[in-house]
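Input structure tokens:
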């Protein structure tokens, strides 16, 4: 199974930027800022990986969440979704 990928590149101004691509190759999110060094850009990627695992969704719109939407993302939610998908497919996980 293909995995999401972080790409690090240099922009026209000589700054480093990262881009997260879905397994399909579609861009998901980018750094939105340039970094002076490759090392600092890599640290930015590491922080996204570290904190996104336990991040919760904070809806500031005031709109009602979609039916069945989860407020917390991360490993637990992912495992639960994986088990449901495996059960539907008739496979044991």
């Amino acid at each position: 199974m293909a995995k999401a990928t972080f790409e690090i590149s240099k922009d026209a101004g000589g700054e480093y930027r990262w881009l997260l691509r879905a397994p399909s190759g579609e861009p998901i999110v980018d750094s939105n800022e340039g970094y002076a060094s490759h090392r600092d850009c890599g640290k930015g990627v590491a922080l996204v990986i570290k904190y996104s695992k336990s991040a919760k969704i904070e809806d500031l719109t005031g709109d009602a969440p979609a039916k069945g939407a989860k407020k917390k993302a991360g490993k637990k939610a992912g495992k639960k979704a994986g088990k449901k998908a495996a059960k539907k497919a008739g496979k044991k996980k």
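The chain has one domain: 1-54+72-86. Strands lie at 5-10, 16-21, 27-30.
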